[in-house]
């Protein structure tokens, strides 16, 4: 039986052939350290990184590629935005649907004098922009908000909240771990100041890649997480103060960024609308099948147009862990059970502490796989009766 992979919200798999080829080419034919030497292989390595910046800029609507800081994942990018920007006495707003990549650094800073307001979302994971607007105070410095929940897939009203933030002079940071590469995004048009993304999910890059877009001029107010060699201004013992070197100490993951650039290029070639259309089709097919299955409870909007390709559900009489294990061992379906590193989201939708079974689809899944998975869930539902 062929393996069916429905865990793309954790990491996408498989990747496009272009991703594998770009990483192999770097490893076999280039291999130099970017920006650290003057020979041709070092220059070629630097060009790969620049190509990745430019490709991501085209995909995400970023005017200046140098406003992208490369990190090892979205978590590091979010920590840079949170830890590097907020100070004691600042007030910050977030939602009850956040991943721990936002919640944990914010809770840490709360113990150090940062004031935190968590806006409650609906049981479907939806956020009312007016409730968030009402929470803004005179000392509100930033809003940190997930673009789409990794638990329910619910898409947040980013454009509207960006407008609210801009009107009140509040910095707006978006956690796009689940949406970069999956939804049409134009950062320049959406009033986004900080945009954290990971490379290994919908951008089709490898693990160990990600980044933070920083609106031009805002870097003057954000401290780096670390200091060290950047390959630039080596005559000085102080950290460079210009983008992106200020935040990119140490040798970058060039082989990973080769893959990330190729993955983003693949999305540009296919077209983000084509990818989104297919993922909506797969999600709608699965939701419609689940709705007619006895003993199954679905969480979120249950509307494929209002969510990314993530569906959380539970089966009566079967824990999420038991269901995921049976799906793997009996049906070769890879899924993820539990709390998905987002306990606040599960409290919001009423599934804490048991969590849910999560299926997350990707561009390389098929309708036949969805139909097979529905049959598997129906069998487990009957067993749980």
Give an account of the 3D structure.
The chain contains 11 helices and 13 strands. The chain has 385 residues and is α/β, with parallel strands linked by helices. The protein folds into 2 domains: 17-270, 3-Layer(aba) Sandwich (Aspartate Aminotransferase, domain 2), CATH 3.40.640.10; 271-383, Aspartate Aminotransferase, domain 1, CATH 3.90.1150. The strands form 3 sheets. Strands 2-8-7-6-5-3-4 form a 7-stranded mixed β-sheet, sandwiched between helices. Strands 9-10-13-12 form a 4-stranded antiparallel β-sheet, with helices on one face. Strand 3, helix 4 and strand 4 form a beta-alpha-beta unit. The radius of gyration is 21 Å and the shape is globular. The two termini are 27 Å apart.
Write a brief structural summary.
By secondary structure, this protein is an alpha/beta fold. Helices cover 38% and strands 15% of the residues.
Q: Given this structure, which CATH class of the largest domain is correct? A: Alpha Beta
Q: Let me know the CATH homologous superfamily of the largest domain.
A: Type I PLP-dependent aspartate aminotransferase-like (Major domain)
The average pLDDT value, as a whole number, equals 96
- Tally of separate helices: 11
Structural classification: alpha/beta
Widest sheet: strand ordering? 2-8-7-6-5-3-4
> How far is the first residue's CA from the last residue's CA?
27 Å
Low-confidence stretches: none
Gyration radius over CA? 21 Å
Q: What oligomeric arrangement do these chains adopt?
A: single chain
Stated plainly, the CATH topology of the largest domain is called Aspartate Aminotransferase, domain 2
Query: How do the SSEs run, as a string of H and E?
Result: EHHEHEHEHEHEEEHHEEHEEHEH
Helicity range? 25-40%
């Amino acid at each position: 039986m062929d393996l069916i992979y429905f865990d793309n919200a954790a990491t996408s798999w498989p990747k496009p052939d272009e991703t594998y080829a770009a990483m192999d080419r770097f490893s076999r034919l280039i291999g130099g350290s970017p920006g650290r030497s003057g020979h041709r292989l070092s220059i070629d390595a630097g060009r790969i990184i620049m190509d990745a910046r430019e490709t991501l800029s085209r995909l995400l609507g970023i005017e200046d590629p140098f406003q992208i800081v490369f990190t090892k994942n979205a978590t590091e990018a979010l920590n840079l935005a949170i830890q590097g920007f907020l100070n004691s006495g600042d007030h910050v707003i977030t939602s009850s649907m956040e991943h721990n990549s936002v919640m944990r650094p914010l809770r840490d800073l709360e113990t150090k004098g940062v004031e935190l307001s968590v806006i409650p979302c609906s049981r479907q994971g939806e956020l009312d922009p007016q409730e968030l607007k009402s929470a803004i105070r005179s000392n509100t410095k930033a809003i940190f908000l997930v673009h789409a929940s990794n638990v329910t897939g619910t898409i947040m009203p980013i454009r509207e909240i960006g407008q609210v933030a801009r009107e009140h002079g509040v910095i707006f940071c978006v956690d796009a771990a689940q949406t970069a590469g999956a939804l049409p995004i134009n950062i320049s048009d959406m009033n986004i100041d900080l945009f954290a993304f990971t490379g290994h999910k919908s951008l089709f890059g490898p693990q160990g890649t990600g980044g933070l877009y920083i609106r031009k001029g805002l870097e003057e107010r954000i401290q780096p997480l670390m200091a060290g060699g950047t390959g630039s201004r080596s005559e000085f013992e102080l950290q460079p103060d210009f983008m992106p070197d200020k935040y990119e100490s140490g040798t970058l993951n060039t082989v990973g960024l080769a893959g990330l650039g190729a993955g983003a290029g693949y999305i540009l070639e296919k077209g983000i609308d084509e990818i989104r259309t297919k993922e909506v089709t797969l999600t709608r097919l699965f939701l419609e099948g689940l709705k007619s299955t006895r003993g199954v409870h679905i969480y979120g909007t249950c509307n494929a147009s209002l969510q990314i390709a993530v569906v959380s559900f539970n089966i009566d009489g079967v824990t999420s862990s038991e269901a995921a294990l049976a799906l793997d061992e009996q049906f070769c379906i890879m899924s993820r059970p539990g709390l998905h590193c987002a306990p606040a989201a599960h409290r919001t939708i009423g599934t804490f502490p048991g969590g849910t079974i999560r299926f997350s689809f990707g561009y390389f899944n098929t309708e036949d796989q969805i139909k097979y998975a529905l049959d598997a869930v129906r069998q487990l539902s009957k067993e749980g009766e």
